[in-house]
């Protein structure tokens, strides 16, 4: 039974993966189309906006319109866009006069650094706190943790960011913005870490509450599970019961939610990036929207949608990986 | 130890380091310091020598001859010759990609040649009085080394110009640039207009001005060019900081739709017909209490708005005579409107007798501009008092421009800054800038179109004598002032703050009676800035000490965490399972 | 080996177990019967102090002379599984779904005995074999087993540290009749072979009758009747035992053919028990005295006792 | 339930303040042309929370701001909940093609990044409260839909649905009489959380310059404070009150939601 | 006489698992039939198919001789009602007893107050005491009575009860069975009672059908089947119930992999070589080609 079912499991998994991938690809393209349509609807005069404040001749305006393809009909622009995307090109930014892919690649690193660190810290912190406070529901620890995380969750990010910035940009210790000290000859890991502290702290403070909540409630759900009684009856200490039995199970429902949340994190970073002058994708999007720089918008849009879609896919896979019950199906 | 001047990068940062393509302030700023130009601007905004030491207009009025210095070298050691300048200008003139950013500046050029390494000859199509403003730092054309750029002409559109150090010439050499982060420069100690006082210059990008101020206070920055009035007022009180005001090089105002139309006279858009009437525009001008705006919106850190060209350029600045001036007088405004037959309806809003429409106007504001938001609420209140209703529509810059181009607007918040050459700003009030019938081609400021004004515009273009040109420009501004299509509300001063412990000499020129410095044109601030004393002024709490504190703190955290863990362990091992 | 004296457990105001006492020796099997909610599991779990914090336990649980209710946690943990293990109701939920069964069997071995992981694995394999689950399946997860197999794995796990006492709390409830029979046989064999003391809990008298020497019938937190299993079923003294016995008809017995029998009324809510006999409201032969007089276990025959006034009055059956 | 009392109390207080605001706050307090207070003054007599740059009382602004902030939060939530619940319920009930299609649509919307979407929506619809409300609804209904669908699936799997079918109930009957009442508590709970995040979103979007900067909401107050340099000026009386108001109201909704969730917990209900 | 409810060649497949694999079964007027078998043999699937909750992949269901028309399910269900195993789950926790019982008549547009009489008939007396209560305020036995009352309110001719007492306490169980028996006696209602408990069949049924792996392997009157079982599977079940004989070896069967030949032969103690190749039909109430060998009653059963 075992070996046979493993065989079907693998086949079933392959098929499941293929299905999920196909759905993801479809999702991706649909979001692209939605994005294109919405962005194209935006009333905008990019040429005038770009050249605002600069001497510009009529010929120059016409030339710019031509260069940006603004005179092409919508459908043609759509086809170009789809074609470009399929080829893996993201077009040419209007305002930065560069390949969108270059721009996105430049800004992706810092965003991933900030988001990755914040996510890692807040997931770790959130899960740990959530686990402990759920395990002893109603304890002082639980009340403090839940209260603090709820309060922090209720704070507008940009506001918290500003307040932290003013309060903690300490001379020589925590800088007020940027990703590295420009007067250093080379990029220094410690220096970047220093710059990362405040923006990361801001993100963490705001988002870790979500993980606390999820983990806490799944631990509370698990707490009454019969297998925990078994574990206790075996003579395990309370901490071991929690760590070795409750935690892995409570993690299951949290995982999906965490991944889904991670997917939206990238696009949620605009305000933090703005407050801390972090050279990331969020702020680039914001700039793109102001013009609006359609190719650039599309480019960042693709990244954002893709990150959500990929994270959802990963959530699914992670769930399957973590839960043997689903794994075999 | 080397000294570094750390300043906030201006405006919206750098779009591209390719000077043929860039539009953003931050980029133009950089080009102004790393590429030479034919002329520089003196501290009063007048053309001065740079690469060129002399410039003369030939008798045919079409030939300009620039005498260039000998012996200047690009940062890679190759000589700077007239050929570089000629090549740069010709490329912009002939290549549409190269003309992306600055094409308009050379559109009247017939041909640019370099008969010898120190002579540059510019032939214009029509007489042009402002050729010495064409290549100036920041707002004009930077000259680039031909030997570096020639190989990239084919792929100019994709050339990022990021081989550091960037070959150029100027007070500084660009040694590194990270998009959205910083630009780093080394001083050119042999710079022809004087050696920079610092060894390095760093421009760092800050998106929130409060973050920049925090950085200044904590010593991460030495200088911020452009803080807002509230910040300025607060920082002025700080004795360790130097807060200075400079005469503004721009204005804030409103524009009223005088009847949008195309070049052929076809009306377009949805502008309110009443605004076509001079009397309505005049009444609006009288109803606005500009002094209150100056005190309330910009904390008094600016000047009352009058003429179309800002006071930073005294050579062009114009003020109405007292009898011409629109002084806040709502009673008179009401009289004017009553007399013209705009009677008030039941709701207190006047009605246009011709169209039967109430005098209810849309007021488009820039949604990302806090001053716009503040001003617009005042305007609503004041105009209500003369029976005119305003509905505020916050718009993105782009949407606003789009409405403007389509003529779908009544009143818009408006603002311009300008370099020392007023040609362009004056030009966008001419009939020639109205859109074509297909809607393209227009870059009109506000659909203003007046034959007399156009004639004056043509005249000043060709008037070589600066004084005479100034009179014509003044007359043009009077015409605009009377038309009340553009109503200039105020000229905000430029507000700068610098640390006094790390930098001195950041502002140049002598302040006027009000304590206002002349506008800091071109690269002078950074060039003349120097460490305050001979002793090296390291960053306060520089990285050395900082690291120690940092490490100490880290250690503390580790001890704390470790301690709690140990304690916890001991406790859990104890009683309750 | 095990001596329980006057065990009381209450969840807040609700008294789930009220004054239960019994003794058990090595090799003995005690069956505890009673319907849902009468306090069987509570009683069983309280022996090893496995109840949640909300439960308040009094009385004495002497295991090898040591009172487990007052023992230090560390000492108690050492007793758990090593000396006394539990087979829980519903093996699906009693096994951790995300860990392999092998792992879960090894866990107590590694915890209580100084053996290598390898040795523990070997022992786990032996145990699995002993309960009739192929040893190679130690690497599978609980959900990959059928209900009967899972229950057998639970039993294997309970035997892991060669305990002296096994508390089996409804080990067959969720199982099919056929599988149930298998499991009971397996347990019975194990007890016979290794001389372990077993407390087996069930609501099914028939099941207990197959397994146990002695029976204790619980109602509303009390033992209402105890005695040798066969006698108790064949000749119940307490009306509740009688009703319970009749609820499981003997096939072929014409008396029960087309005549199902039950108890009128609802099972008691332990939260609102008054004085008097808890069973009185549902008892056909209850009188005024039953409702007021408190009842306790009175001897009702050789080696038997029942908590019924009728027994005291000598009105047998 | 202390947290419920707190949550409801705070919300009620804000609601009362907001609803009665027109009684004691007039044009003369809000119209920049008419106010007479000092500019950006710290708390003084007559201005318990100081003034803004135009000389208006920050206290009155915060109270006035509650009106629009709460309205946006509530309306956005209503839209979100109605849309999300309808989609979730249908997707959960019709597990065939319709359900699949609806879930796909939901997935697509989940993948749409919310901030860019909100910004472009407000460009299309015109900036201001209405577009912000719609933008919040468009980007947040998916969460409700998923939640409701999951819950619907759970409810549909329960035996009483089968019983209802056998008794003769059709799809509409099953959905409206059996599934909806059982999903409703969850919707209620999730909607309190949605209000909370909608108020936060409003503040964020307005802060990014998408709102109507001339209207008085907590978001626009913060935006005005930040862009006006209140941080540098140390004008804590201008920065803190709107932020704290947001915090308190969001916390109020969250606490209420949690408490209600707790009250409606089937495990509790079953014992009650 | 045409049976009230009848299944002919019924087959229900979930994917490649044939949970019900060719079942013929009939319930006659006023008769209680017990369907017994071990877990997973397809009892519930069959029961659910009989009330139209599952559409059989093959075969048909007849009510009073007329085949079930899936477009007119609602009407059919007036006559055939289902009672589920778990009364707690079968009641909507947010419906009062009144709403739960009145639901059927409401859906069918039946007039008059059927609720109180149905409750009274189901043994909830006085009915008024219960109308406003919610399911969680009732004991398990009371809940099951409410469920039964809900079905009775439609005055069906047949009740299909899937494990009606499995989740109830032993003491309550008898009362519910009494109720079902009483309904048959008083109203002449027919019932199909599904259970894994042979004792239940003995308690209330007229006829028994024993199911194994999707098939009925033996049917007959209770006395015939339970006292003189012929099919080895029935015998094994009876033996297991009394705890006397060696229980069946092997794991419960899997409907996705039905063995060839007699489906019981892998677990059959008395199988012969040909059992692996002959799939015996139900003949004279038993589906075992060696049935005649086992005709003697089990001596253990007295
Ligand atoms: N954690 C708890 N908190 C409060 N009451 C409880 C708790 N656990 C059990 N009870 C109550 O205690 C009584 C006895 O429960 P217990 O689980 O011991 O019954 P049981 O005889 O094992 O029933 P079953 O046959 O259903 O397992 C019941 O009324 C139950 O509701
Ligand atoms: N919806 C379904 N999808 C797939 N397989 C199913 C489904 N329902 C039942 N089965 C399978 O069909 C077989 C028969 O199931 P059914 O529920 O009819 O058995 P049963 O005899 O009622 O068992 P039990 O006594 O456990 O209730 C089982 O193997 C089961 O796993
Ligand atoms: Mg129990
Ligand atoms: Mg079943």
TrEMBL record, chain A:
Q: Sorted alphabetically, which Pfam families does this protein's record hold?
A: BPD_transp_1, BPD_transp_1_N
Q: Which Gene3D superfamilies has this protein been placed in?
A: MetI-like (1.10.3720.10)
Compartments annotated for it: namely:
Cell membrane
Report the residue ranges that make up the ABC transmembrane type-1 domain in this protein. Answer: 108-315
- Tell me the domain of life: Bacteria
Membrane spanning residue stretches: 21-42, 112-131, 152-176, 196-214, 251-276, 296-319
**UniProt keyword annotations, A-Z:** Cell membrane, Membrane, Transmembrane, Transmembrane helix, Transport
Q: How does it sit in the membrane?
A: Multi-pass membrane protein
Question: What family is it from?
Answer: Belongs to the binding-protein-dependent transport system permease family.
Q: Name the chain's protein.
A: ABC transporter permease
Q: What is the originating organism of this protein? A: Nonomuraea mangrovi
Automatic annotation (TrEMBL), chain C:
Domain of life of the organism in this record? Bacteria
Is the keyword ATP-binding in the record?
yes
PROSITE patterns assigned: ABC_TRANSPORTER_1 (PS00211), ABC_TRANSPORTER_2 (PS50893)
Stored CDD domains: ABC_NikE_OppD_transporters
Per UniProt, subcellular location reads as: Cell membrane
Q: What InterPro entries does the record tag this protein with?
A: AAA+_ATPase, ABC_Ni/Peptide_Import, ABC_transporter-like_ATP-bd, ABC_transporter-like_CS, Oligopep_ABC_C, P-loop_NTPase
Topology with regard to the membrane? Peripheral membrane protein
Cite the GO molecular-function annotations of the record: ATP binding
Report if keyword ATP-binding is assigned.
Answer: yes
Provide this UniProt record's keywords sorted from A to Z.
ATP-binding, Cell membrane, Membrane, Nucleotide-binding, Transport
Q: Which SUPFAM superfamilies match?
A: P-loop containing nucleoside triphosphate hydrolases
Q: Where is the ABC transporter domain?
A: 2-245
The family classification in the record reads: Belongs to the ABC transporter superfamily.
Question: PANTHER family, from UniProt?
Answer: DIPEPTIDE TRANSPORT ATP-BINDING PROTEIN DPPD, OLIGOPEPTIDE TRANSPORT ATP-BINDING PROTEIN APPD
Q: What is this protein called?
A: ABC transporter ATP-binding protein
Which organism's genome codes for this protein? Nonomuraea mangrovi
From TrEMBL, chain D:
Q: Which PROSITE patterns match?
A: ABC_TM1 (PS50928)
Keyword list (alphabetical) reads:
Membrane, Transmembrane, Transmembrane helix, Transport
One of this protein's Pfam families, by short name? BPD_transp_1
- Read off the SUPFAM superfamilies from this record: MetI-like
Chief site of localization: membrane
The membrane topology term of the UniProt record is:
Multi-pass membrane protein
Location comes to: Cell membrane; Membrane
The record's listing under InterPro entries reads: MetI-like, MetI-like_sf
Q: Which residues form the ABC transmembrane type-1 domain?
A: 66-257
Q: Which residues cross the membrane?
A: 70-94, 115-138, 183-208
PANTHER family reported for this sequence:
OPPC IN A BINDING PROTEIN-DEPENDENT TRANSPORT SYSTEM (PTHR43839:SF1)
Instruction: State the similarity comment.
Output: Belongs to the binding-protein-dependent transport system permease family.
Protein name in the entry: ABC transporter permease
**Organism, scientific name:** Nonomuraea mangrovi
UniProt lineage: Bacteria, Bacillati, Actinomycetota, Actinomycetes, Streptosporangiales
UniProtKB/TrEMBL annotation, chain E:
Q: Which InterPro entries match?
A: AAA+_ATPase (IPR003593), ABC_transp_ATP-bind (IPR050319), ABC_transporter-like_ATP-bd (IPR003439), ABC_transporter-like_CS (IPR017871), Oligopep_ABC_C (IPR013563), P-loop_NTPase (IPR027417)
Alphabetically ordered keywords of this record: ATP-binding, Nucleotide-binding, Transport
Domain (ABC transporter): residue spans on this chain: 5-238
The terms under GO molecular function for this entry are: ATP binding
What PROSITE patterns does the database record attribute to this sequence? ABC_TRANSPORTER_1, ABC_TRANSPORTER_2
Show the PANTHER family listed in the entry: D,D-DIPEPTIDE TRANSPORT ATP-BINDING PROTEIN DDPF-RELATED, TRANSPORT ATP-BINDING PROTEIN
Q: Which family does it belong to?
A: Belongs to the ABC transporter superfamily.
Concerning NCBIfam families, the annotation shows: oligo_HPY (TIGR01727)
Protein name as catalogued: ABC transporter ATP-binding protein
List the lineage, top down: Bacteria, Bacillati, Actinomycetota, Actinomycetes, Streptosporangiales
């Amino acid at each position: 039974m075992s070996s046979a079912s493993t065989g079907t499991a693998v086949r079933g998994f392959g098929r499941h993966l293929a299905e999920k991938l196909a759905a993801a690809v479809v999702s991706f393209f649909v979001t692209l189309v939605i994005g294109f349509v919405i962005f194209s609807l935006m009333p905008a005069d990019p040429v005038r906006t770009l050249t605002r404040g600069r001497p510009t001749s009529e010929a120059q305006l016409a030339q710019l319109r031509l260069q940006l393809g603004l005179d092409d009909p919508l459908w043609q622009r759509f086809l170009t866009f789809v074609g470009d995307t399929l080829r893996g090109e993201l077009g040419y930014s209007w305002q930065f006069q560069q390949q969108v892919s270059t721009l996105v690649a430049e800004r992706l690193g810092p965003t991933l650094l900030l988001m990755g660190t914040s996510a890692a810290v807040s997931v770790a912190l959130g899960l740990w706190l959530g686990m402990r406070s759920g395990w002893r529901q109603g304890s002082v620890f639980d009340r403090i943790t839940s209260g603090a995380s709820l309060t922090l969750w209720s704070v507008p990010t940009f506001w918290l960011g500003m307040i932290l910035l003013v309060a903690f940009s300490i001379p020589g210790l925590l800088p007020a913005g940027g990703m590295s000290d420009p007067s250093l000859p080379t990029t220094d890991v410690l220096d970047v870490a220093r710059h990362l502290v405040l923006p990361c702290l801001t993100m963490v403070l705001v988002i870790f509450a979500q993980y606390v909540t999820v983990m806490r409630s799944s631990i509370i759900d698990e707490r009454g599970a019969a297998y925990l009684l078994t574990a206790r009856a075996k003579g395990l200490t309370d901490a071991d019961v929690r760590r070795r039995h409750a935690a892995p199970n409570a993690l299951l429902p949290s995982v999906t939610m965490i991944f889904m949340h991670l997917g939206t994190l990238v696009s949620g970073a605009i305000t933090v990036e703005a407050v801390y002058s972090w050279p990331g994708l969020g702020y680039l999007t914001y700039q793109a929207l102001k013009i609006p720089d359609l190719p650039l918008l599309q480019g960042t849009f693709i990244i954002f949608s893709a990150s959500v879609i990929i994270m959802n896919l990963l959530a699914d896979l992670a769930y399957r990986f973590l839960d043997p019950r689903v794994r075999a199906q | 130890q080397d000294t570094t001047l750390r300043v906030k990068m201006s405006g919206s940062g750098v779009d591209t380091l390719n000077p043929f393509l860039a539009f953003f302030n931050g980029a133009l700023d950089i080009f102004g310091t790393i590429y030479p130009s034919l002329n520089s601007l003196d501290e009063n905004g007048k053309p001065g020598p740079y690469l060129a030491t002399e410039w003369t207009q030939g008798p045919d009025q079409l030939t300009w001859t620039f005498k260039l210095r000998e012996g200047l070298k690009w940062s890679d050691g190759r000589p700077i010759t007239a050929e570089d300048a000629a090549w740069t200008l010709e490329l912009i003139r002939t290549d549409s990609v190269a003309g992306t950013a600055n094409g308009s500046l050379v559109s009247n050029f017939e041909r640019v040649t370099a008969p010898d390494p120190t002579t540059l000859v510019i032939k214009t199509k029509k007489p042009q009085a402002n050729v010495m403003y064409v290549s100036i730092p920041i707002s004009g054309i930077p000259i680039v080394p031909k030997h570096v750029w020639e190989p990239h002409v084919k792929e100019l559109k994709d050339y990022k110009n990021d081989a550091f150090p960037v070959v150029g010439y100027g007070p500084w050499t660009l040694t590194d640039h990270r998009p959205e982060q910083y630009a780093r420069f080394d001083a050119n100690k042999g710079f022809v207009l004087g050696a920079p006082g610092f060894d390095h210059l760093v421009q760092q990008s800050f998106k929130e001005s409060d973050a920049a101020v925090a950085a200044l206070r904590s010593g991460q920055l030495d200088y911020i060019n452009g803080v807002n009035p509230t910040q300025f007022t607060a920082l002025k009180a700080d004795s360790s900081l130097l807060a200075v005001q400079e005469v503004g090089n721009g204005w804030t105002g409103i524009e009223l739709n005088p009847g949008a139309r195309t070049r052929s006279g076809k009306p377009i858009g949805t502008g309110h017909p009443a605004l076509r009437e001079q009397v309505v525009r005049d009444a609006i001008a009288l109803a606005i209490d500009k002094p209150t705006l100056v005190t309330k919106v910009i904390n008094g850190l600016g000047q009352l708005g009058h003429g179309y060209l800002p006071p930073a350029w005294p050579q062009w600045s114009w003020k109405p005579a007292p009898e011409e001036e629109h002084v806040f007088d709502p009673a008179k405004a009401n009289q004017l409107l009553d007399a013209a037959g705009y009677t008030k309806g039941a709701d207190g809003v006047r009605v246009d007798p011709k169209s039967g429409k109430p005098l209810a106007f849309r007021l488009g504001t820039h949604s990302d501009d806090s001053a716009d938001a503040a001003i617009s609420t005042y305007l609503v209140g004041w105009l209500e008092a003369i029976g005119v209703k305003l509905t505020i529509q916050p718009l993105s810059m782009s949407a606003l421009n789009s409405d403007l181009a389509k003529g779908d607007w009544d009143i818009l918040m408006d603002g311009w800054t300008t370099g020392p050459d007023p040609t362009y700003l004056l030009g966008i009030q001419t009939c020639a800038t109205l859109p074509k019938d297909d809607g393209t081609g227009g870059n009109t400021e506000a659909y203003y179109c007046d034959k007399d004004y156009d004639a004056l515009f043509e005249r000043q273009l060709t008037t070589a004598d600066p004084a005479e040109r100034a009179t014509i420009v003044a007359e043009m501004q009077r015409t605009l002032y009377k038309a009340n299509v553009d109503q200039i509300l105020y000229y905000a001063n430029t507000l700068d703050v610098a640390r006094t412990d790390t930098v001195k000499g950041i502002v140049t020129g002598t302040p006027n009676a009000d304590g206002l410095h002349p506008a800091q044109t071109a690269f002078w601030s950074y060039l003349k800035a120097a460490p305050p004393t001979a002793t090296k002024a390291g960053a306060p709490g520089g990285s050395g000490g900082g690291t120690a504190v940092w490490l100490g703190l880290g250690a503390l955290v580790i001890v704390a965490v470790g301690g709690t863990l140990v304690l916890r362990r001991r406790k859990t091992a104890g009683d309750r399972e | 080996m095990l001596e329980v004296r006057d065990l009381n457990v209450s969840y807040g105001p609700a008294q789930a177990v009220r004054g239960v006492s019994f003794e058990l020796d090595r090799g003995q099997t005690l069956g505890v019967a009673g319907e849902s909610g009468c306090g069987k599991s509570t009683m069983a779990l309280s022996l090893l102090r496995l109840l949640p914090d909300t439960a308040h336990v009094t009385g004495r649980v002497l295991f090898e002379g040591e009172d487990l209710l007052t023992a230090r946690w560390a000492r108690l943990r050492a007793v758990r599984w090593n000396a006394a293990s539990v087979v829980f109701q519903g093996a699906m939920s009693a096994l951790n779904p995300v860990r392999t069964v092998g792992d879960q069997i090894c866990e107590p071995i590694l915890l209580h005995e100084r053996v290598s992981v390898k040795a523990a694995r070997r022992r786990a394999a032996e145990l699995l074999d002993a309960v009739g689950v192929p040893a190679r399946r130690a690497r599978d997860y609980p959900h990959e087993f059928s209900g009967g197999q899972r229950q057998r794995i639970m039993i294997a796990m309970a035997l892991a540290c060669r305990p002296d006492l096994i508390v089996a709390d409804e080990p067959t409830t969720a199982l099919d009749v056929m599988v149930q029979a298998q499991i009971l046989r397996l347990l019975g064999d194990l007890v016979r072979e290794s001389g372990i003391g077993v407390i087996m809990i069930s609501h099914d008298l028939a099941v207990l009758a197959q397994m146990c020497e002695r029976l204790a019938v619980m109602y509303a937190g009390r033992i209402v009747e105890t005695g040798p299993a066969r006698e108790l079923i064949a000749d119940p003294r307490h009306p509740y035992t009688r009703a319970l016995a009749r609820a499981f008809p003997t096939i072929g017995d014409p008396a029960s053919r087309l005549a199902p029998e039950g108890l009128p009324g609802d099972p008691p809510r332990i939260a609102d028990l008054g004085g008097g006999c808890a069973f009185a409201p549902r008892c056909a032969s209850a009188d005024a005295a039953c409702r007021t007089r408190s009842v306790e276990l009175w001897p009702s025959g050789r080696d038997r006792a029942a908590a019924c006034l009728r027994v005291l009055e000598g009105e047998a059956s | 339930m202390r947290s419920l009392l707190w949550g409801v109390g705070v919300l009620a207080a804000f609601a009362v303040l907001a609803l009665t605001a027109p009684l004691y706050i007039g044009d003369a307090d809000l119209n920049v042309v008419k106010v007479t207070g000092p500019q950006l003054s710290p708390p003084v007599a007559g201005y318990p929370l100081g003034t803004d740059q135009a000389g208006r009382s920050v206290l009155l602004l915060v109270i006035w701001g509650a009106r629009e902030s709460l309205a946006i939060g509530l309306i956005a939530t209503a839209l979100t909940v109605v849309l999300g619940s309808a989609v979730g319920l249908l997707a959960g009930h019709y597990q065939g093609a319709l359900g699949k299609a609806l879930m796909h649509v939901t997935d697509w919307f989940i993948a749409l990044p919310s901030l860019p979407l909100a910004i472009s929506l407000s460009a299309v619809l015109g900036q201001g409260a209405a577009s912000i409300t719609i933008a919040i609804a468009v980007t947040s209904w998916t969460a409700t839909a998923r939640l409701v669908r999951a819950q619907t699936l759970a409810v549909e799997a329960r035996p009483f649905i089968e019983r209802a079918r056998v008794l003769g109930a059709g799809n509409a009957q099953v959905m409206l009489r059996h599934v909806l009442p059982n999903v409703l508590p969850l919707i209620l709970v999730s909607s309190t959380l949605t209000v909370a995040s909608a108020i936060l979103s409003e503040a964020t979007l307005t802060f990014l310059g998408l709102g109507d900067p001339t209207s008085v909401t907590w978001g626009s107050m913060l935006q005005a404070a930040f862009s006006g340099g209140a941080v540098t000026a140390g004008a804590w009386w201008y920065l803190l009150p709107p932020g704290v108001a947001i915090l308190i109201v969001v916390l109020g909704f969250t606490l209420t939601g949690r408490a209600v969730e707790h009250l409606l917990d089937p495990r509790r209900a079953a014992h009650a | 006489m045409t049976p009230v409810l009848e299944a002919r060649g019924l087959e229900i497949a979930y994917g490649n698992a044939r949970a019900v694999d060719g079942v013929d079964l009939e319930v006659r007027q006023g008769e209680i039939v017990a369907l017994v078998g071990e877990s997973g043999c397809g009892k519930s699937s069959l029961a659910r198919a009989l009330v139209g909750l599952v559409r059989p992949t093959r075969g048909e269901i007849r009510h009073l001789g007329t085949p079930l028309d899936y477009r007119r399910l609602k009407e059919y269900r007036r006559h055939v009602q289902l009672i589920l195993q778990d009364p707690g789950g079968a009641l909507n926790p947010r419906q009062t007893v009144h709403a739960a019982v009145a639901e059927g008549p409401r859906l069918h547009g039946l007039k008059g107050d059927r609720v109180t009489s149905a409750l009274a008939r189901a043994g909830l007396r006085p009915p008024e005491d219960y109308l406003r209560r919610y399911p969680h305020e009732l004991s398990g036995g009371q809940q099951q009575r409410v469920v039964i009352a809900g079905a009775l309110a439609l005055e069906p001719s047949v009740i299909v009860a899937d494990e009606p007492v499995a989740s109830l306490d032993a003491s309550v169980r008898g009362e519910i069975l009494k109720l079902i028996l009483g309904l048959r006696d008083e109203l002449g209602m027919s019932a199909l009672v599904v259970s894994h408990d042979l004792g239940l069949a003995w308690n209330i049924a007229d006829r028994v059908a024993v199911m194994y792996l999707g098939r009925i392997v033996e049917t007959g009157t209770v006395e015939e089947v339970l006292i003189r079982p012929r099919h080895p599977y029935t015998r094994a079940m009876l033996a297991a119930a009394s705890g006397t004989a060696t229980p069946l070896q092997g794991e419960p069967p899997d409907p996705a992999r039905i063995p060839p030949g007699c489906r019981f032969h892998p677990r059959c103690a008395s199988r012969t070589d040909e059992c692996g190749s002959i799939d015996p039909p139900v003949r004279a109430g038993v589906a075992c080609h060696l049935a005649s060998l086992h005709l003697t009653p089990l001596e253990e059963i007295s």
